[in-house]
Amino acid sequence: MPIDDSIERLQIYLGATELLQTGAVWLASDGRIIGSNSNFERELGYKKSDLLEKFIFQINPRLNLIEWKRIWKNLQTEGKAELDGDHITADGRLYPIQMSVVLVDVGTQVVCIGIVKNLLSLSRYRDMLELVSKMTKIAAFEWDLIVNELIVTDEMYEILHLDKQKNQITAANFRSYLDQYLGPEDRVQLRETTLKAISEGRPTQLECTGKLANGEQKTVVIHIQPVKNDENTLKVFGAVHDITPQKQAVQPLELTQFALDNAAEMINWLDQSGKIIYANQAMADKLGYTKAEMEQLSVFDIVPSIQEVGWDYIFSSIKAKKQLVIKREKRHRDGSILNMETIANFIEFDGQPIICNYLREDSVAKMDERENKILQNQLQNALDEIALLKNQIEMDNACLQCELAGQFNYHNIITCSDRYKTVLQQVEQVADTAATVLITGETGTGKELIARAIHINSRQGKRPMVKVNCAALPENLIESELFGHEKGSFTGAVARKPGRFELANHSTLFLDEIGEMPLDLQTKLLRVLQEGEFERVGGTETLRTDVRIIAATNRDLTEMVKKGTFRQDLFYRLSVFPIHNMPLRDRPEDIPLLIQHFTKKFADKMGKNIPKIPQKIISTLEKYSFPGNIRELENIIERAVILTADDTLNLDLTPFKKTTNSNDQAAAHEDAQFKTFDEMQRDYIQKALEKTEGRVSGPDGAAVLLGMNDKTLFSKMAKLDIRK
Q1: pLDDT (tens digit per residue) in 195-253
Q2: 3-class SS of residue 30
Q3: Which burial class, exposed, middle or buried, applies to 559 when counting CB atoms under 10 A from its CB (0-12, 13-18, 19+)?
Q4: What contacts 121, CB < 8 A, 6 or more positions away?
């Protein structure tokens, strides 16, 4: 099926959900919201445009991508499911919901429709029951068969003409009150019908006629709805509807129907889709059909000049003007053409829009030529616009398919790259285990995001993840930070302090830049990983902890192991499940998505609206090597948003074209590669030693030149493998 037909079918389904009295939402296979009805938008407090940018797990905190994939897989097998959860409104409130979901095939894709029930409103059940009963003049009752308790609405007393204060309706006397009202035959039929409905657990209804004590005759319809659980019927819901006024109005209604069917003037009614929902006998006779056959046709079958693609515009014109006089040819059943004049009137009945047509053959009335010409021109313009939009859809089809099939936000990881999905698959595979994970990759690739995704989807995901940056802490403090210290264990230790291993008990500890950890601490870390035991600095008590370790580094640990700056046994213990986070230059298909994401993020933060991103910016940055990876791209877009004054992103592309024009991007990346912090420290200390001719301590030593303590400098030289 062509994509425009699929989109049209999806729009028809979406339009149908507007008739529902509950919220409805349409979801793609990745959980993205692709449509909603007005009830759903009103309950959440979002605009439709805001909802179309979200995923179902952004408004339902009990869901995530992995859980949604499981639900989708079950839907493909079962076809439908019932989900419980909560929804977050636009102002941050939370309310419980129950959602019934089914799969719908719209042609080029299978989507999911969810019908949402707001459970918060059920607490007002009895009040609403009374209110609806009064509004509709229908008495309602609930009969709990387990405890033999009956609840009836006030309308029941009015229908049975009973004084509520003197004649209280209960489970014991309810049947006797009905028996007094009904005749003998209806009495027996009601009893048999009720018992059969209760035993079978099936809904039923019965129309009865009887006389009240005051002699008034009434006709009622009694509805019975049993609630059955396994073999037992637990409750009976019911309603008593007084249809006496409708019965009294039957004669006028029959007269109206007779007048329409036998009118000499031809009459038909059309719904919004153009289907004929009524045609009188004169219309059927004139076109050579029976009345039943006419109601199987549409306007396109009998009016050759009207095509489906232009019907929406004609319908909208009649709706706007309320009445139009149109002269068009009609097609007889035998194929001959009849010239007819149609007076089209727009009305609404029970919320349904209807076109009521009155037709006359060979009328002397002429349609206003000027209005007809304007209408024809507008119709042609509408057809031209539809053709233009169709071409645009075909041109953007590749991009649309990428968005439908690949784009998703996995715990703030934005990607549509098939290659990067292997990384996310590794995350899903290891998340629910207790295995130690080592995340490697260049600076700025988002290693911490990978760690957070693993933690959130793990068994410890409900507890906070504890993070330690091994490169940001001095050597003399990192041990205390990891393992804690006792009061008085060193200068400044004025109180006992728990370490990160204690804080992360039964949770996840993320050791960022693990390659910067000193050798003496690597031994203690290895003991914790192997035995789960450690002591605080200055303490003698052995503490135990249950911690899941995730480590990350941008350094080559295998080379460090060869040089002796990283313990081999610790490396093997950490790399139980290694994950390499690929650089941005290896996933260029994600660059347009990331540009769009960062533009919206910083524009919202700065109170700007920047919906337009020039294609030349995307094309140029797709060819750039990004030595600083995603962090560099984020900084570039933030600077561009600051400099943008209108609705189109403004970015100077000169610095990036130098790299894109190179025939060897790998060489360009190598030239632009930033030095690590350790490399910069090593170069700086070596320059200081050269200036002091190798002297470290003393008044003319490198320590004084660098403003450092002698022992600290010796320790730093040992760590960085610097020899005099």
Answers
A1: 888 888 788 888 888 777 677 788 888 888 887 765 667 678 888 888 877 666 545 55
A2: coil
A3: exposed
A4: 128
